[in-house]
């Protein structure tokens, strides 16, 4: 009953993560909300008041008693599991508390509680942020993980923001449907979709964010909105590619599904001596292959100082033979090792994701978005960067994922995703132990930095879902940044959602 009373009062106012990583193998008395914090009406987002500094210790018991979900305070038994992210490198970041939100009301109450108590509030979905952006020292993490329902009807799926990719696929498969997503089974649909979402279907069906019809989102003023093409349209625009953590907490997505069709798959390997030719051929493939064909390209530093290279391809026609042959012809030589298979939708989901779940993994990574094909000199520099890592025994990979196809056919500027005309995204990935030494971290960072330098001439910026510390916000959003800033000013004028990286506030 107490909870209902309080709410009434409040209402008065993704054999591989081939597309991303080298492997996926990751008080009793409820405090009244001051009038200044009472949500403004949905039509006036800018009316949100300033964050009210805490006058006293936060009334955690009051918050707890009002939740359908659970609250985990530092020092409590459930806290260590609740505050962990996928990358153990961020275990040392200790929020004051984690709310595991079970309902939209939980999210709303958490936001209002954080405002009232002057706490920094960050949303958490699947917890796979490359920079630990879904946790915050001393702040309040709002984990939407328990909100993971998947409901399908008439080609549209409604997905709770806490759903993980494998679960979405497994549920949709029962209705013969799917979504274009990344491959890692434990990546959260929220973070993935808000930042774009690339994967094997990108060329045939576009990005995950391109399939979003509408979103339920709680903004900094505590108002629950349905952002879509005709309502809160600026927010809808911004949340399709602008990344998570800046504008509100999304609680559910409605997305247009795709058929759960069988996939043709191939893996092709070439010797190190052919790496430049293979990369040139892959670039041509990324540019010219039909929309139904997709292949990414891996250059992996081996601990013996050599490079190994392979391409992993998918054809949504159901047979990968033609696509594999096209890639080989562009490379100019047959692959030295070649496997071509056909898999059902769920077999492919499990194969590409390396299983149905993924273990927590340490890594440091970054990205460059390629405007177009790299010239010979840029390719030479890229290969030299990976080779230097191999010689230094740094676990390092350059993984190139193609864009184009349907992702390029969406109108430029129609959503915040800024890279419609780009050829591909290169990920610079370095595996790390769970708790790496300063030297190991430095070596990994050096590799990522050397990758950026190598392709600087061909790079348009970075992919926000492969976000990095210390990189300029403009590099992630290009021509979308000015409008993103305007949307931030409209919906979060007091910068309540203080994104730790790539903040456009
Ligand atoms: C192993 C692995 C594999 C990957 N594979 C792919 C891939 O195949 N394709 C691809 O495109 N990307 C891939 N990625 C990158 C992935 O898309 C991003 O890391 C993404 O941000 C993860 O989303 P999350 O919900 O799991 O992460 P989180 O860390 O929970 O969230 C990421 C960001 O979004 C914010 N956020 C989370 N939930 C919400 C919400 N409900 N509302 C508003 N903001 C929110 C967080 O505050 C944070 O800033 C991969 C990452 C990893 C670690």
From TrEMBL:
Residue span, FAD-binding PCMH-type domain: 91-260
Keyword Transcription regulation recorded: no
Pfam assignment, any one: FAD_binding_4
Origin: domain of life: Bacteria
Entry annotated with the keyword tRNA-binding: no
Chain intervals for the UniProt region annotation (Disordered): 32-52
Signal sequence extent: 1-22
UniProt keyword list: FAD, Flavoprotein, Oxidoreductase, Signal
Biased composition (Low complexity): 33-52
Cofactor(s) required for function per UniProt: FAD
Annotated family: Belongs to the oxygen-dependent FAD-linked oxidoreductase family.
Protein name: FAD-binding oxidoreductase
């Amino acid at each position: 009953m107490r909870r209902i009373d309080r709410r009434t009062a409040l209402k008065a106012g993704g054999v591989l993560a081939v597309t991303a990583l080298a492997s996926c193998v990751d008080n009793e008395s409820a405090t009244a909300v001051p009038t200044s914090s009472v949500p403004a009406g949905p039509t006036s987002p800018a009316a949100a008041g300033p964050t009210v500094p805490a006058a006293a210790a936060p009334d955690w018991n009051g918050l707890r008693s009002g939740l359908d979900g659970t609250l985990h305070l530092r020092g409590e038994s459930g806290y260590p599991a609740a505050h962990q992210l996928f990358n153990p490198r961020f275990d040392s970041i200790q929020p004051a508390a984690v709310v595991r939100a079970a309902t939209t009301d939980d999210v709303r109450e958490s936001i209002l509680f954080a405002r009232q108590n002057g706490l920094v509030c960050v949303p958490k979905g699947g917890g796979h942020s490359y920079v630990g952006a879904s946790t915050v020292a001393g702040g309040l993490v709002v984990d939407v993980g328990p909100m993971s329902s998947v409901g399908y009807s008439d080609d549209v799926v409604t997905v709770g923001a806490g759903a993980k990719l494998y679960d979405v696929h497994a549920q949709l498969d029962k209705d013969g449907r799917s979504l274009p997503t990344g491959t890692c089974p434990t990546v959260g649909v929220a973070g993935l979709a808000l930042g774009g979402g690339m994967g094997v279907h990108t060329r045939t069906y576009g990005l995950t964010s391109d399939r979003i019809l509408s979103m339920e989102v709680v903004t900094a003023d505590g108002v629950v909105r349905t952002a879509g093409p005709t309502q809160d349209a600026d927010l809808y625009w911004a949340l399709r590619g602008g990344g998570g953590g800046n504008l509100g907490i999304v609680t559910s997505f409605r997305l247009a599904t795709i058929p759960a069709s069988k996939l043709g798959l191939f893996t092709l390997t070439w010797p190190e001596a052919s790496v430049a030719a293979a990369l040139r051929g892959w670039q041509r493939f990324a540019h010219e292959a039909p929309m139904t064909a997709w292949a990414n390209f891996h250059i992996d530093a081996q601990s013996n100082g050599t490079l190994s290279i392979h391409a992993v391809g998918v054809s949504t026609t159901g047979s990968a033979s033609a696509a594999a042959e096209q890639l080989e012809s562009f490379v100019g030589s047959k692959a030295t090792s070649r496997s071509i298979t056909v898999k059902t939708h769920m077999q492919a989901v499990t194969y590409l994701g390396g299983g149905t779940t993924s273990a927590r993994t340490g890594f440091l990574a970054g990205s460059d978005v390629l405007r177009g094909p790299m010239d010979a000199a840029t390719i030479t520099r890229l290969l030299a960067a990976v080779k230097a890592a191999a010689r230094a025994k740094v676990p390092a990979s350059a993984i190139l994922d193609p864009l184009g196809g349907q992702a390029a056919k969406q109108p430029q500027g129609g959503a915040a995703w800024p890279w419609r005309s780009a050829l591909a995204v290169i990920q610079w990935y370095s595996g790390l132990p769970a708790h790496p030494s300063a030297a190991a971290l430095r070596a990994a960072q050096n590799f990522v930095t050397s990758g950026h330098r190598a392709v600087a001439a061909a790079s348009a910026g970075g992919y926000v879902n492969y976000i990095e510390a210390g990189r300029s916000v403009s590099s992630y959003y290009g021509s979308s940044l000015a409008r993103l800033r305007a949307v931030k000013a409209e919906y979060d004028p007091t910068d309540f959602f203080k994104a730790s990286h790539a903040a456009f506030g």
